[in-house]
Write a structure and sequence with these properties.
The complex is a heterodimer of chains A (481) and B (484). Chain A is an alpha+beta fold and 481 residues long. Chain A has helices spanning 53-65, 168-184, 225-244, 290-299, 304-314, 319-325, 329-340, 345-362, 374-385, 391-402, 408-415, 423-436, 438-445, 449-462, 469-480, and strands at 3-14, 73-74, 76-80, 90-94, 103-109, 118-131, 135-141, 144-148, 155-161, 197-207, 217-222, 252-257, 262-268, 278-279, 286-287. Chain A has three domains: 3-292, no CATH class; 302-415, no CATH class; 423-480, Orthogonal Bundle (Arc Repressor Mutant, subunit A). Chain A starts with a strand and ends with a helix. Chain B is built from 15 helices and eleven strands. By secondary structure, chain B is of the alpha/beta class. In chain B, helix 7 packs antiparallel against helix 15 (459-472), helix 9 (302-317) crosses helix 11 and helix 9 packs across helix 12 (369-389). Chain B has helices at residues 6-14, 20-38, 46-61, 103-110, 153-160, 177-183, 217-227, 271-286, 302-317, 336-347, 350-363, 369-389, 415-419, 426-431, 459-472; strands at 41-43, 72-76, 114-119, 166-170, 186-189, 210-214, 257-261, 290-294, 395-399, 435-443, 446-454. Classes of the chains: A alpha+beta (481), B alpha/beta (484). Chains A and B meet through loops of A and helix 9 of B.
């Protein structure tokens, strides 16, 4: 039987606010344990939550970015359960009435050996505001567990999708797109190691062609795209094999072990908590007015889709190039900065996606880590455009620049890469080459195009690669006609 | 001095007839003498109190005094007061020293008032007799065999026995008004949101409201001037303009329309209590008030609604007492779950546990709609009843409690009978309305209270109504025998 996997994601996005969602304590990462645990963070008797408006603005920004309904009135609810890192014994979240309703995100699933690239729309079910819990620290004190409440109360936006994805590739593409989007609109730093972006993935399988959803299992807390890919692949296979072996899938929460590449059940449905949600009486319903929305809309940066369209018209980039440049805000910023510093747009796009991207990938870096500043790249591109150096020579200069040398002109000088564009000099070289290769001239005149290329090659070699190839071509053609 | 009003005490201090330190000492001596019998205070700290009094004397000497500067006030042990043990009447917080001030405490501090001590209360404010306190029951100064009411029973007994000039209380279903009725003094529960709940240990957040407990309406008005006001640290605090609650005290009552809800005079009301209330109504007629019969058809549902909503909120509010960060933690345990269970089993008393269980049940999957949601719907109906009633009248009057103070132990075995103590007071909490109880007479030597319910933010008028009565009668000046 052919099987189909059905995947939905719940992503916890840590919002980039200075202070916590219900108190003025700092959200900075990495401080000494409990130095950011204020009276509210440790849930002293009598303390009360006060909503951080900055967190609300972040949620609204996200809603606007995915073209979602923003609820004019949403409600904070208490999710009750006991855990040492949950100081109040309940988490303030949103349950029945979330701040962001239905929306959508369009993803470009990359090509594979089996399939061409394609576009897909992933439905956003909802996004709601909530507070993060603290952390249990095991082993810091001998034989005991410590509690660090610095993170308790950090604002999160939980973004839930429809079960729209049909492969690990689609799920990962969506997660990457969401990861870029939340950074793009400035609501999340995207740092997955520090837990700023964490995905729970719901996976079920069903016979291909059927409509009913299978029983899902939820893989918790995936904090890398690679692990997500592996976890979904393993889980999908496990579910199919379990059913084919005559078993049934029980609803469960599971964990992925990156060391073994396997998933393991954490708790079954029976063991699941009854969270006893009810509206938090300490907080008024959250109201977002049309004016609030308009004000936040005005603060929104240009979104990737709009920027892509603009790059196509403004810089005459191909749709493919424009899409590639706008996959990340940082890349787009770098590109624009390069163009604004005088770099040719088409060349800039080629170099950003080509040389720079390759180097970054090889060194596992991102564009903001690039040792070549956009201004420096622009200068290099100028030297290509004004024929000072050839494209090939530029690669040589680029290697040097990557090592931290930003002075393009002195690199060209030092390496003697300046292109020869002096017609007289090139003519002299061509004459020498023609004189030394009468056989090739004969072959060319007999109709062998290859011979012409060989003559160009000889001339370039004679110029030590510095002759302007276009000029060499033109002069050769002229002399041979 | 002990029978003086806050205004008189304030004047004595201003005229330097007495210092704040002397005044505090007078009450501290009375506490030392009578508290072993009455058990009104959980914590008395003479050093702290006298330090504040000395500071107040300096302010007075410098000519910077305001109305309550130097006046000692007893604080219900539900308010966090920096450096003070704040127990909420529970073993769970037996040794909890608050590291910060509740809004109410800070307001009194800023006004120069002196904290006289922390008063006894039902555990986490759950009770109507003060018998659920971990620190022992409180005796009613009018009859030491009887309860003072609850949950603000310590504050009530302290005011009645003149162990303080005035005290603070909190009222979730009647916890200021019922003890005011049973101990014969004036207590006001303001409009929900008028006094910040910041630092006031939560029982049922949507119902809890702090208010003054004092001998007279005038005293309550002076305390309201300190306690009321917007506080951005409480999201349910209402941004209502500051007002002077003493400004309308002396308005004549002629033309005042008073509604008498027939449901508050029906079966269940003690006949002698009814007589006292009727006499008070007659007195009000003499003062020029007009009376109309009104109906609050859903009032009878108040108690069932309250005993779904309040425990639901409490079950969640009390989850933080888990032994992890502060408060009681069991001595020996095998693992985390064992620690949780033993800590909470030991730290909470029976009534608190009962309400946590009820609350947990009504919020559980499968029961939520039938209990919590239904109760919320009825809560709106009850509020609508009052809305309709206030189209017919300015003020609503009735008994505060169906009967007078009962004997210690009399109702402790029957929670439902205990819950009926609040049958006339709970509806105002559900509606968020202000309610007040003033002394209206006696039945067999025990005080009887008259309840005055006002529209939202109508505290000034309610205090006016109470004050006018207290100018014409002297019930509020009566003092229990045996206590000098």
């Amino acid at each position: 039987m052919e099987w189909e996997v059905v995947i939905g994601l719940e992503t916890h996005v840590q919002l980039q606010t200075k202070t916590k969602i219900f108190t003025g304590a700092s959200t900075a990462y990495g401080a000494e344990p409990n130095t950011q645990a204020c009276d509210v963070s440790i849930a002293l008797p009598g303390v009360l939550p006060v909503l951080n408006k900055e967190a609300v603005a972040c949620a609204v920004k996200f809603g606007l970015a995915v073209d979602a309904e923003i609820a004019p009135r949403s409600v904070f609810a208490r999710k009750n359960y006991f855990y040492p890192d949950l100081p109040k014994g309940y988490q303030i979240s949103q349950f029945e009435l979330p701040v962001v309703g239905k929306g959508e995100i369009t993803i470009q699933v990359p090509e594979t050996k089996k399939q061409a690239a394609y576009e897909k729309v992933v439905g956003i079910t909802r996004a709601h505001l909530e507070e993060d819990a603290g952390k249990s620290v095991h082993g810091a004190v001998d034989g005991m567990s410590g509690i660090d409440l610095n993170r308790a109360g950090t604002p999160l936006l939980e973004i839930v999708t429809e079960p729209d994805m049909r492969s690990a590739a689609e799920a990962v593409t969506y997660a990457k797109k969401l990861h870029e989007l939340v950074q793009w609109i400035g609501i999340c730093d995207g740092n997955m190691q520090e837990g700023s972006f964490r995905c729970d993935v719901n996976v079920s399988v069903r016979p291909k062609g059927t409509q009913a959803l299978g029983t899902r299992r939820e893989i918790k807390n995936l904090n890398s795209f690679k692990f997500m890919q592996q976890a979904i692949a393993y889980e999908t296979q496990w579910q199919i094999e379990t059913i084919e072996d005559g078993g049934t899938i029980e609803q469960a929460t599971i964990l992925f072990n990156p060391d073994t590449g396997e998933t393991r059940a954490m708790r079954s449905k029976e063991e699941a908590n009854d969270y006893r949600y009810f509206p938090d009486p300490d907080l008024l319903p959250l109201e977002v007015t049309e004016e609030d929305k308009a004000r936040i809309q005005a603060e929104m940066p240009e979104l990737p889709e709009a920027m892509k369209a603009r790059f196509e018209s403004e810089y005459a980039l191909s749709a493919y190039d424009a899409a590639a440049i706008t996959t990340s805000r940082a890349v787009a910023d770098y590109f624009v900065e390069t163009v604004n510093a005088g770099g040719d747009a088409k060349l800039a796009a080629n170099w950003v996606m080509g040389g720079i991207s390759a180097k970054l990938n090889a060194e596992d870096k991102i564009i903001t880590d690039s040792p070549i500043e956009a201004k420096a790249l622009a200068l290099l591109l100028k030297r290509i455009a004004d024929n000072t150096i050839s494209n090939n020579a530029a690669k040589n200069v680029f290697e040097e620049m990557w090592l931290g040398n930003a002075d393009v002109d002195s690199i060209i000088e030092a390496k003697g890469l300046k292109q020869v564009s002096d017609t007289g000099a090139i003519e002299a070289m061509v004459d020498e080459v023609l004189a030394a290769n009468p056989k090739m001239i004969e072959e060319y005149k007999a109709g062998k195009e290859k011979a012409f290329n060989a003559l160009v090659g000889q001339t370039m070699k004679a110029s030590k690669g510095k002759a302007n190839p276009a000029q060499v071509n033109a002069i050769l053609k002229e002399k041979l006609s | 001095m002990i029978n003086h009003s806050l205004k008189e005490l304030s004047q004595m201090l201003a005229k330097k007839e007495v210092s704040s330190v002397e005044m505090a000492q007078t009450f501290l001596e009375r506490i030392q003498k009578y508290n072993p019998q009455i058990n009104a205070y959980i914590t008395v700290d003479a050093d702290k109190t006298l330090t504040q009094a000395r500071a107040a004397d300096a302010v007075i000497a410098a000519g910077n005094a305001s109305a309550l500067t130097g006046v000692p006030i007893a604080q219900k042990d539900i308010f966090c007061a920096s450096g003070w043990k704040t127990t909420c009447g529970s073993k769970m917080l037996e040794n909890f020293i608050a590291p910060y001030d509740a809004h109410v405490i800070a307001q009194f501090d800023a006004a120069g008032a002196v904290n006289l001590g922390k008063t006894n209360m039902d555990e986490f404010a759950m009770g109507s007799s003060n018998e659920t306190s971990y620190f022992g029951g409180v005796k009613n100064p009018w009859d030491l065999e009887r309860v003072p009411g609850g949950s603000s029973g310590g504050s009530a007994a302290a005011v009645a026995a003149r162990l303080c000039p005035a005290a603070t209380g909190t009222d979730t279903g009647g916890s200021i008004r019922q003890p005011a009725s049973l101990c014969g003094f004036t207590g006001l529960k303001p409009t929900y949101g008028l006094v910040s709940r910041y630092g006031m240990i939560a029982f049922a957040s949507s119902l809890d409201q702090a208010g003054p407990m004092a001998k007279s309406a005038e005293d309550c008005a002076m305390m309201m001037n300190v306690m009321a006001g917007f506080d951005e640290r409480d999201s349910t605090s209402l941004n209502h303009p500051k007002q002077d609650y003493t400004s309308e005290l002396n308005k004549p009552l002629a033309g005042l329309k008073v509604g008498l809800p027939k449901e508050y005079f029906a079966e269940g009301l003690d006949a002698d209590v009814a007589k006292v209330v009727d006499a008070a109504i007659a007195e009000y007629k003499k003062l020029g008030a007009e009376f109309v019969d009104i109906s609050l058809p859903n009032a009878s549902l108040s108690i069932p609604v309250y005993y779904v909503l309040a425990p639901a909120e409490a079950s969640s509010n009390l989850s933080r007492y888990d032994g992890v960060r502060y408060g009681h933690r069991t001595a020996e345990y095998d693992d985390l779950m064992d620690m949780y269970m033993k800590t909470r089993a030991e730290g909470f008393g029976a009534e608190v546990k009962r309400r946590i269980l009820i609350g947990t049940y009504v919020l559980s999957a499968g029961y939520y709609d039938a209990y919590y949601l239904k109760a919320q719907q009825i809560r709106h109906l009850i509020a609508d009843d009052f809305k309709a009633a206030f189209k017919q009248c300015d003020i609503i009057m009735g008994p505060t409690v169906p009967s007078t103070a009962f004997k210690t132990g009399e109702k402790s075995g029957n929670p439902v009978e205990m819950y009926l103590q609040d049958i006339y007071t709970i509806a105002t909490n559900l509606a968020g309305l202000p309610g007040m109880s003033i002394p209206a007479g006696f039945s067999h030597g025990l005080p009887v209270g008259l309840q005055i319910i006002g529209n939202y933010f109508d505290e000034a008028r309610m205090l006016n109504v109470g004050h006018a009565y207290q100018q014409a009668t002297d019930w509020h000046t009566q003092m229990p025998e045996g206590i000098e």
